Amino acid sequence: MFICPGCLKFLRITTRTKAVLYTTAFNHQKRTIINISRQTKRSFSSSSTVCAKPGDEIDLTKFSPENIRNFSIIAHVDHGKSTLADRLLEITGTIPKNAKNQQVLDTLQVEKERGITVKARTASLFHTHKGQTYLLNLIDTPGHVDFSYEVSRSLSACQGVILLVDANQGVQAQTMANFFLAFERNLTIIPCLNKIDLHNAKPEIVLEQLNNVFDTDPDDVFKISAKVGTGVQELLAAIIEKIPPPPGDRNKPLKCLVFDSQYDQYRGAVGNILVLDGSVKKGDKIMSLFSKKSYEVQGTGILHPNEKLVNVLYAGQVGFIHANFKKISDFQVGDTFCHQKSPVEPLPGFKPAVSVVFAGIFPSDQSQLIVLKAAMTKLTLNDGSVSVNVESSPAIGQGWRLGFLGMLHMDVFCQRLEQEFGTSVIITAPNVHYRVRIKGKRNIKLYGDEIVDILNPCKLPDLNIIEELLEPMIMATIIIPDQYLTAVMSLCHERRGNPLEQTYLDQHRMVLKCIFPLNEVLIDFFDELKSITSGYASFDYEDHGYQQSDLVKVEFLINKNPVEEMTLICHRSNSRNRGKEICVRLKELIPRQMTYVTIQAIIGSDIVAREDIKPIKKDVLAKCYGGDVTRKNKLLNKQAAHLKKLKMVGTVKIPKDTFIKVLKKK
Predict the structure, then answer these.
(1) pLDDT tens string 16-43
(2) Burial letters 320-342, b for 16+ CB under 10 A, else e
(3) Could you read off the pLDDT of 538-574 as tens digits, one per residue?
(4) Where are the alpha helices (DSSP H) in 130-286?
(5) With 80 as the cut, is the pLDDT of residue 512 above it?
(6) Residue range 42-61: average pLDDT?
(7) Beta bridge partners of 513
(8) Furthest-apart CA pair in the chain: how many Å?
(9) Helices 81-91, 232-242: crossing angle, 10 deg rounding
């Protein structure tokens, strides 16, 4: 412990912090300069979670299941979930009231940059209602369809939800999807109308929509403004009165469900749990019913919203634990933990996420392969919806083929890899999961089954042994103002959509149900839909099985060398146009080289498109001011021979983001 003579403040300098204390006198004032080592400073600034300290324990003994409420906030994107969470934290005294309290629970850098929630967050609140103190466990969930797996896992730890609807935008596609997620789990649903203070708010129309779609009584809908806090106090009382307490018995053996997890650089795997029965504390020997391995609990706590240690977590409570997990893979989301000497029946866990978008992930430098593998292992602990398979490419090297729940999910995952772990990755062109039916007993024996899954278009078998090609289909829900119906129907037909039904939400808004090939809506369908509807459309989809289709494989060559990372599968009717479009885009995206670059698209043995990129040439005639033409021809021929040699031995440098940009429209 040191005392700064200039300001008489105590400065604690630990053994991990290299500090040099300099004191100088100038104008009768003393200045203190502390030079902290770069590595230690980075470790403190990069951590988004404030770790709990021993001695700050909170006693949860008095909170029996009757005094606990577990609930989530569900809504469409940008309907005010995080803002409502901020007001609830302020009203309950969890955080001080401050104008800077904006999206307090959104701690990831990617969330702050994009302005959306991509990761469910838990916060424990203490609130007194009618003389009784309650423990409220709030889970703020994402609103985008690509992160619906986060919502479904969060609902497993809740007995009720707040269904938030924007009073200006009304019922949206993801509002309907989230409602039915909660309805299927038989959770108590509290409908809530947000942003009633906006000048353009239309509460009467939105109440009519809620009544038509969800059969909700307008008198049961709470009207609030999460930004200014209007009506939030009444909503808080309704949470306590309407949402039932969690079932659980402290006297039974321990049974807890892991519904989320993350990696901490000092403690390893940290899991968010719901204690269903019994209790768990530091020092307990617990056993995983998934791996049958035993561990010693190193600490228990709650998120308030930062980590706060507790002595014991009891039945009905939501908190976190960390133990001496030797391997990150030992800690699985959906696992059931119990005391080592008191085994219980395992919980059913969670349905595995079904990936719809697949892309290759490779390190920019193959020497960083081990670093990227470690980063992906830690990040997939926090995002269990990503599927991982090893893959190698002749051009890029060794990597992985990852499965995601959508394009935004893929973008966010790769951005988190770069921001949180400092890795640089190359992403190949995304594709969907195709299936082929093989004919011939010999071929079936070679591939192991009659139905073969195709995750990488390069692995598509020869067309001569394929009986039929199957592509994934989706059931899409589109909500639009009726004035844009003609333009939207034209877009649907252009993307090979099959409209099924049209219903009215109110006098001016419609719900369209369409069946699409997933590949047609994968890249830029939603952007184009927003464009033609002036931003008023909302879009959601769900799996609709597989359907036979006339598909072909389109391959691309650069200087007659195949680029497997650009190979794609598309419908035959659009294959030639697609090949020409991508060749033109490649010509725009690939920088000029020292050699002549030829880009070709081929289907089978036919070349359907070609583009050329002229080389960067030195002006070899600049020094020739006159003289015989043979001198000029000699210089030009020498330059042409040199470029020809470079073309034979040289390589074409392709920017790492080309594979994604080439599939998007301008």
Answers:
(1) 333 333 333 333 333 333 333 333 333 3
(2) bbbbebeebebbbbbbbbbbeee
(3) 898 888 999 999 999 999 998 888 888 888 899 998 8
(4) 148-155, 173-184, 203-214, 232-242
(5) yes
(6) 53
(7) 477, 501
(8) 105
(9) 90
Q: Distance between CA 31 and CA 4 in Å, rounded?
A: 9
The arithmetic mean of pLDDT across residues 388-392, rounded, is 89
Alpha helices (runs of H) in 51-162, residue ranges in sequence order = 81-91, 109-114, 148-155
CB 273 within 8 A of CB 321: yes
Helix (H) or strand (E) holding 281: strand 279-281
Measuring CA to CA, which residue among 481, 555, 409, 431 is closest to residue 169? 481
> For residue 173, what are its two tokens?
């596609």
Mean per-residue pLDDT over the chain, rounded: 84
How far is it, in rounded angstroms, from Cα 153 to Cα 469?
Answer: 34
What's the confidence (pLDDT) of residue 1? 37
Sole residue written with tokens 């060398």: 561
**Coil/strand/helix, residue 210:** helix
- Mean pLDDT on 603-611: 91
Name the residue type at position 363: P
Of residues 413 and 632, the one with the higher pLDDT is 413
Written as one letter, the residue type at 323 is A
Q: Reduced to 3 states, what is the DSSP secondary structure of residue 275? A: strand
Q: What is the DSSP letter of 657?
A: T
pLDDT-based confidence at residue 90 (cuts at 50, 70, 90): very high
**Beta strand pairing status for 509-517 and 466-481?**
antiparallel
Query: What span, in angstroms and rounded, lies between the C-alpha atoms of 611 and 593?
Result: 14
How far apart (Å, rounded) are the C-alpha atoms in residues 364 and 236? 50
Contact 162, 239 (CB under 8 A): yes
Q: Choose among 519, 587, 593: nearest CA to 551.
A: 519
Contact 165, 171 (CB under 8 A): yes
What is the distance between the alpha carbons of residues 198 and 540, in angstroms, rounded to a whole number?
A: 26
Rounded (10°) angle between helices 173-184 and 148-155: 30
299-341 pLDDT, tens digit per residue, is 999 998 888 999 899 999 999 998 877 677 777 888 899 999 8
* Distance in angstroms (rounded) separating the CA atoms of residues 508 and 520: 28
Strands, DSSP E only, in 109-159? 121-129, 132-140
Q: What is the pLDDT of residues 220-267, one digit of tens each?
A: 999 999 999 999 999 999 999 999 999 989 999 999 999 988 888 888
Measured distance CA(238)–CA(224) in Å, rounded: 13
| Lookup result for tokens 């000048």 | 199
Q: What is the pLDDT of residue 651?
A: 64
Check whether the bond before 305 is cis (ω within 30° of 0): yes
How far is the C-alpha of 653 from the C-alpha of 610, rounded, in Å?
Answer: 19
Provide the token pair at 136: 């409220």
- Is the Cα dihedral 181, 184, 190, 193 positive or negative? positive
* CA 337-338-340 angle, 5° bins: 120
Spatial distance between the Cα atoms of 393 and 651, rounded to a whole number of angstroms? 16
Angle in degrees, 0-180, between the axes of helices 485-494 and 525-532, rounded to the nearest 10: 160
Which of 62-71, 112-121, 633-642 holds the top average pLDDT?
A: 62-71
In angstroms, the CA 643 to CA 559 distance is: 13
* CA 174 to chain CA mean position, Å: 16
**Stated length of the chain:** 666
Strands (E), 141-179: 160-166
Amino acid type, 333:
V
* Residue 70 predicted with pLDDT over 60: yes
CA distance 575 to 605: 14
